[in-house]
UniProtKB/TrEMBL annotation:
<dbReference type="Pfam" id="PF13229">
    <property type="entry name" value="Beta_helix"/>
</dbReference>
<dbReference type="InterPro" id="IPR012334">
    <property type="entry name" value="Pectin_lyas_fold"/>
</dbReference>
<feature type="signal peptide">
    <location>
        <begin position="1"/>
        <end position="27"/>
    </location>
</feature>
<dbReference type="InterPro" id="IPR006626">
    <property type="entry name" value="PbH1"/>
</dbReference>
<dbReference type="InterPro" id="IPR011050">
    <property type="entry name" value="Pectin_lyase_fold/virulence"/>
</dbReference>
<feature type="domain" description="Right handed beta helix">
    <location>
        <begin position="148"/>
        <end position="314"/>
    </location>
</feature>
<protein>
    <submittedName>
        <fullName>Right-handed parallel beta-helix repeat-containing protein</fullName>
    </submittedName>
</protein>
<keyword id="KW-0732">Signal</keyword>
<dbReference type="InterPro" id="IPR039448">
    <property type="entry name" value="Beta_helix"/>
</dbReference>
Length: 369
């Protein structure tokens, strides 16, 4: 795979794409204001693909880096922006442009295919050599806390089709957006255990970290080896939805080897649905938890429903999970809520219960995929 690190950028309108762009090939181009644009990042097949996907009023452009793609989007004032990443290895992505009420889509060519060993681990993260070339976002600098950050105001956001790895704080971070979709990604080797550079006191939060982002759908992803090894191993999660991140759907994902609870809701993140996921050797207090910090200033969540999930009956540290009758003790179980430190006096304390069952949740002694 290629490594996409060039800072020198030449942007060309794709006149051959057949969508009404007239700038000659190789010329510097400023997009005309439009509803929709697609920017192909280092994709040699862009003209052909753009012809197949073109619609009235849509523009198509090519860039050498994601940073240049964002400059194109800002200049275009487009409402809907799709960034299509060719196969290769990319540095971390930090996206901040958003058209009001539009959608920002960051789309890779596909995530790595992971071979799993008999115990359900990711076979040391080895990729399937027969799989097509993947789009990989890799954090290689100490300052690269997240693989993909989207902070685009009230715009909708989609992140799909890539592998995100070797980041200290998290894989995907979305703040404030509506109708968030994170799907079809492999997010692996996240947290202080996997990043030797930088401040060792800084540890990871989540494979997907939502802050006040409503109506998020996290689906068809694989989360492997999300681990902190410092003061806060329990602070790392697969999906971490905080600060009124309401109506989150976590569906049909695989979670393995995560040092904290694989799904964590915090501070008034209400009405989530966690369905048809598979968990193996993951979790600290629970498979799904609702937690409050900040000296009592944070509020309980409510309305979260668990349905049709299958979870390995051992935590990340190989302790046994207990039946749900023990939810108000310090023993780990399928669901749990509390505040501050994980100890008996802090468990529970929410009325109504933030998390309820809707049937079909099961424990297993062998990996469920």
């Amino acid at each position: 795979m290629k490594s996409h690190t060039s800072l020198a950028v030449t942007v060309a309108c794709l006149a051959t794409a057949g969508i009404g762009l007239s700038s000659p090939a190789g010329a510097q181009a400023r997009p005309t204001p439009t509803q929709d644009i697609t920017v192909y990042v280092d994709d040699a097949a862009a003209p052909k693909a753009a012809t197949a996907d073109s619609r009235a009023g849509q523009g198509s452009f090519q860039a050498s880096t994601v940073a240049e793609a964002q400059r194109i989007a800002e200049a275009s004032r487009a409402r809907n922006v799709t960034i299509r990443l060719a196969p290769g290895v990319y540095p971390p992505i930090d996206w901040s442009y958003g058209g009001r009420g539009g959608r920002i889509t960051v789309e890779g060519a596909g995530a790595a295919s992971i071979r799993t060993s008999a115990d359900g681990s990711a076979a040391s993260g080895a990729a399937d050599a027969s799989a097509p070339a993947a789009t990989v976002v890799r954090c290689s600098r100490a300052a690269s806390e997240y693989g993909v950050r989207v902070r685009a105001g009230d715009a909708n956001a989609t992140v799909s089709g890539m592998t995100i790895e070797k980041c200290r704080h998290g894989g995907v971070y979305v703040k404030g957006a509506s109708s968030v979709k994170v799907r079809g990604n492999v997010i692996r080797y996240i947290g202080s255990k996997h990043v030797s550079q930088g401040d060792p006191k800084k540890e990871g939060f989540g494979g997907v970290h939502l802050q006040g982002a409503s109506r998020a759908t996290i689906s068809d992803n694989r989360f492997f080896y999300l681990e902190n090894n410092g003061r806060s191993p329990a602070g790392m999660h697969g999906v971490y939805a905080a600060n009124n991140a309401d109506r989150t759907i976590v569906e049909n994902n695989r979670f393995g080897y995560i040092s904290g609870d694989p799904v964590r809701f915090r501070h008034g993140s209400d009405n989530a649905r966690v369905t048809s996921n598979r968990f193996w050797r993951t979790g600290f207090a629970a498979i799904v938890s609702d937690w409050r910090f900040g000296g009592g200033s944070e509020k309980c969540g409510k309305g979260t429903v668990l349905k049709n999930n299958i979870a390995g009956n051992r935590t990340y540290t190989n302790k046994k999970y207990y039946p749900d009758a023990s939810r108000n003790t310090v023993k780990a179980t399928m669901r749990k809520w509390g505040k501050g430190d994980f100890e008996a006096r802090n468990i529970g304390g929410c009325n109504p219960a933030p998390i309820t069952f809707a049937g079909g949740n099961k424990w297993t002694g062998s990996r469920p995929w």
